[in-house]
Amino acid sequence: MPSLTFVLPHWLYWSTLLLFPLVAIWLVRRQHRLGPPREPILFTAYLFWVCAGYMGLHRLYLRSWWGLLYLPLFCAVVYCNSEVRESREDVSRTGAALEQLQSALKAAQPIDAANPTADERAAVAKGEADVRKAQSESDAAVAVQEGWRTRSRACGLAIVALMLIDAALIPRLVRRRRDERTGYAADPIGPEPVDVPQQGTAEDPTMRLRSPFTDWIDRMNGAIGEYVAYWAVISVFVYYYEVLARFVFNSPTNWVHESMFLMFGMQYMLSGAYAYREDQHVRVDVVYTKLSTRGKAIADIISSLFFFIFAITLLWTGWRFAADAVGNHETSFTEWGIQYWPVKLTIPIGAALIILQGLSKLVKDVLLLRHGDA
């Protein structure tokens, strides 16, 4: 298979982080309005075709056993590429030996080419013989490598041809599969989903309390939490691309790991307030669980002093870090050279959000003490 030389442009990285959640939120809400779709879904079939069509998963999704035809071709590509990687050592070793012998032959050339001595002629003859032998070994190693590359390329082209044919056939296959599923329209989504209990602490007695001020903060942090949650979906596609590029195209990237750990770092900072709203942060609750509702509210009010000291310190120091990064247009020291200042800017933003959520929590604790659970 040919090598992939794609390097993610910086503008595409940042625009994806900005726009992908908006598109995902719109699609999810649109589907909620339209109701559950009928299976199989045309979009899902094309998604399988784009992401894993080389293994025939789009055909298997549509219950077409012709998808199994892709598997031996894909396994052949992976095997041939592994042999190409193994042959690199032989090509490198024989090439280095050839260069060394060519240098030795050049050094063995007689100073007086018109009247060489017998020893000089013998040395030149031996050097030329060694070079010819090394050249044949190098050519053989290159030929073996090119042979595996040719086989890999042929299997890859066969997969591409099958995928192009299926790209035109997928709509018809989806319609045929829907027609075969008699009675499915009455139950388009199958059994009812299982109610999974909420994970985390969820012991905050103020989670049911509301006020106009706290509702505004809760809605804002809920929207931001939902927004950055869709970044995790991006990582699925990006790491999938890395595996595909590394093991199928022999082209590991120099940007996937850095782009994703920076993205998850920003997600961690921006979603902290949402996790606080949902009472999902880790709590040392040896004593807290044994308190009454009012006792928990009093404990939260007292401990909020330490919370605000930490959060305000994070806001101040994070702002200084971000200001320096913005002023210097800071970038990473890797080959990708991505901008660091947007990443560091999420530190004070996340701190500000969690301070607002702390204020919301404090107001609810006070309301709980004054009015109870009403």
Shape: elongated
Overall pLDDT metric: 87
In the predicted model, the low-confidence regions spanning at least 5 consecutive residues are 183-189
Number of domains: 2
Ends distance: 67 Å
Oligomeric status? single chain
What percentage of amino acids are in beta strands? under 5%
Helix content: over 70%
Which series of helices and strands comes N to C? HHHHHHHHHHH
Structural class: mainly alpha
Walk me through the structure.
71% of the residues lie in helices and 0% in strands. It has eleven helices and no strands. The chain is elongated, with a radius of gyration of 32 Å. About 2% of the residues have low confidence.
Topology:
Elements: H1 10-34, H2 42-52, H3 57-61, H4 70-107, H5 118-180, H6 212-229, H7 231-247, H8 256-270, H9 272-277, H10 293-328, H11 341-371
Helix pairs in contact: 1-6, 2-5, 4-5, 6-11, 7-8, 8-11, 10-11
Outline:
The protein has 374 residues and is mainly alpha-helical. The protein has helices at 10-34, 42-52, 57-61, 70-107, 118-180, 212-229, 231-247, 256-270, 272-277, 293-328, 341-371.
What key phrases describe this protein's structure?
single chain; 374 residues; mainly alpha; 71% helix
